[in-house]
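Example record

One chain of 254 residues, shown exactly as stored in the release files.
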Amino acid sequence: MASTSQTRTERTAHLCAEVALFMRDHVLSRVSHDLRSPLNAIHSWAYVLERKIDTADPAAQRALGGIRTGVEQQVQLLETLVDTTRAETRKLRIERAPFALAALIGETVDEARGALGEARGVSFAVQDTTAAAMLDGDRERIAQALWLMLVFAAETSAQGATVVLAASTTAAAAQLQVKWQATPQALTDDTLAHVLEAFARAQAVEQQEAGRHAWVLALCQRVAEAHGGRFAAPAFVGEGEDVTLALNVPLNGA
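Predicted structure tokens for this chain:
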């Protein structure tokens, strides 16, 4: 029988793999979206130029043909490489079943504590008012999202810090909020223990565009959307700032 430490290590490895998979999907989605806009513009301007340039000029016509061919090749690459690679996770399928929120919260906090909290000297304080609330959703996916929120908070915390998990419910939804005071340089401090991969941690300290958040949190966003809920995170985690990640999920699926 596997030891507790082996089981914990395997579980952490599985959760990290899921985080990496959805971050990859998110990055590919950004690449596909952000490249298509300028490619479409280039293609349109090529047709504008075609009407302005002398059709008897073979060099100009070859140049225009080269532009159109190049755009078409790039679009085909996006469709055959980027979009095909994303097919596995483009639409997150969930398996719904009723489960007790309180039990999931306790288990997930223990997993986050074992994965990184103990090694970093970061403690988790739980404020749970969900009582006997039941949620009709994908228990494993919601656990993955909550685990990532807790681990990201630990990754972005100083030694000895406390991360607060506030769990509550209304008549319609469950809300899980992870709150802490940020020390973002901890993300890239190689002297500290880490769970999330280096690329993800480095990107997380960069300023994001309005309405966007760190790529590593993509799994949380996808899980929320698949359940008809929402996920909120700041566009930037500043030094010493009070940070909140919030996952809101309807108690009963549509």
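Notes: The chain has two domains: 4-86, 97-250.
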